[in-house]
Amino acid sequence: MNKKSVLIIIVLYKKRLEESMGFSSYIENEKFLVHRHELIVYNNSPEIDIKASDNFTVITAKENKMLAEAYNEGLKFAGRNGFGWIMLIDHDTYLNAKYFKEATIFLGNTNRCKAAAPIIEVKGATASPIQYKPLLGPYFGFHPITKPGYTGKCLAAFNSGTLLDVEEMRKIGGFNEEYPLDSLDNWYYHQLYKRNCRIYIMDVKIIQNLSVADYGQMTTSRYKSVMNYSLKFAMSLGITATASWRLRNIGRCLIQLTTSNKRKFVPLTIQYLYKHWID
Questions:
Q1: Mind listing the domains of the chain with CATH numbers?
Q2: Any residues with CB less than 8 A from the CB of 38 and at least 6 apart, and which?
Q3: What is the pLDDT of residues 97-129, one digit of tens each?
């Protein structure tokens, strides 16, 4: 295994390749990755024909496998082909040249870290990574991490731009398919924390148009998924974290009541104050 090598994974759903900002950012900035690297495009929409080229491999699922199964396929590919790291890129995130330069520097000397993540801003505020207390979960008492550096503390970070050590991910059993899409990143970062793994916060800021932050485009089924799996993760942390999640949900109700494009979700949000799951 080449410990400096990296397999890049981009997962597409109902998107053509040319519509993916993640793919465009890779093509434009691949030249800055000086270590051995390869790209896999995982196509979750078999009705859309995406053809492989000399520059990347395409895996087309027979049905939508969401993220966890797609990432696990990438993890297996990485193991079979001797890659030391995987890089996750969301289809809707543009990773700039500095990100790829920083990734190259990190891969050259990981300093015993098992993961690395960029600083991501959403609507002008740092949304990832955040540091939190496991007892409370990432719901109360958390604070955004705004400076680069190394940490062994408990944090949550977005999938996009994350670099993960292949061997370490295999030790935790890969990506947990009980979290097929939402809260998957919370789950594996928490597993790394429990294994006392160091994380590197990269010296780069990325602007992300987070789809779940756009309530104007949010469907009821998507909202249920976000809520179901965030509550599932809270429950996995314990009673206090679950209570913390529900307490924050009260605040969410109040915000939704006073915001026109969020008001339609109030009845569902109220149900989550006493339910564990809504189908």
A1: 2-212 (3.90.550.10), 214-271 (no CATH)
A2: 7, 8, 56, 57, 81, 83
A3: 999 999 999 999 999 999 999 999 998 899 999
